[in-house]
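subagent[fold] <- orchestrator: predict structure for attached chain, return tokens only, no commentary.
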Amino acid sequence: MSRREVYLASYPLVPYGEALNLQRRVVSAKIERGFPDTLILLEHPPVITLGRRAREENIRASQEVLQAEGIEVFHVERGGDVTYHGPGQLVGYPVFSLKHYGKDIPGFVFSIEEALIRLCHDLGIPALRRSLNRGVWVGNKKIASVGLAIRRWISFHGFAFNQAPNMAHFKLINPCGLSAVEMTSAEEILGEAIDSGLLRRQVCRHFEDVFQVSFVEVDLGDELDTRPVREGLEGEPTPFW
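subagent[fold] -> orchestrator:
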């Protein structure tokens, strides 16, 4: 049986605001004209994002410290609390129609976690999931976070896998709003560098297998029209994790 084709858009370092607008454009294009499911892979300059349930006090650093570190702050529509993104962290935004997956949101999150767990096992990292705290864990430390928003059964936002980010920046927040959570990274666990290109290829392979799709690499700038994203797409998104 042939697999359903899904767009893959892979970029290097993209400012968070630009990536957020790109996601929203894809969501809009899917709603308006059935644009294909799309996985966006990239990294971000240092940024802290707060989901719809986030509390400001989970940012532990002052504005002065954040400015000195060059860290932007965004309030976004995804689920979850406070998250940090930065160089050395692979971020993925699956803008997928959940109609292909039985409109099963917990199952969709489980599948994202499964792809990342398989990636960890490729690297020799004994990762697992926790039913009460979503994401991917190595012992008591978290190596990947998952947070989604759903609009008209279309997912956006997504996951962040710690390859080799600045781990000191995680000390500036209570990750996921949990003061006891300690973050880790693949290179911290393995004690050696990991090839970023290889990591992306492995993530794609596992997404293809778990979601039973076949990626077609595209440049979204060529695929999307030049019409700006509409402000306030109809219906508020539902946040998850």
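orchestrator: received. Logging for downstream: The two ends are 33 Å apart (CA to CA). Helices lie at 16-33, 63-68, 105-122, 186-190, 196-211, 220-223.
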